[in-house]
Amino acid sequence: MHFLRNVVAACSRQDAPAVLALVKTVFAQPSQQAASQAISQALELLEPRYPKVAKLLRDAEQDILSYLAFPSEHWRSIRSTNALERVNAEIDRRAKVVGIFPNTASLLRLSTAVLQEQHDEWQDGRCHFSQQSMARLDPANQDRLTNPLTAGLAA
Length: 155
Description:
The protein is mostly helical. The protein folds into two domains: 2-69; 82-144, no CATH class. It contains nine helices and no strands. The chain has helices at residues 2-9, 16-27, 32-46, 51-64, 75-78, 82-98, 104-123, 131-135, 142-146. Helix 1 (2-9) packs antiparallel against helix 2 (16-27), helix 1 packs antiparallel against helix 4 (51-64) and helix 6 crosses helix 7.
């Protein structure tokens, strides 16, 4: 999302929808190789008319495609900032209830409590990633992730 905002800022308002549509095709690719090819094609089209956008895309290629190194079922959660924005919104909501904090430490305690609650929710089942898909990231730890009874034996 933030990268796309930077793309819009680097081109004219009237051309922004077309440029965005072209750049978004990169994120719709099914593999790392296809996404890299889509970036190459986008760069060919953007370079003559939008050198700033082409430079942004070229410089950010590694960063914006890093989510493709994970299992495909993780892509949607990784490439989005929704989870982070949700946590920040919850901290903001709780801080508004308090109003004025007497010191920095009190704000830190509230933020830490919200983050601990979020961690507990994720541990209790409201997960973005299944244990099976996480196990595919590190096959050496697959047994530990899929069978909690043997987790202590490996240590």
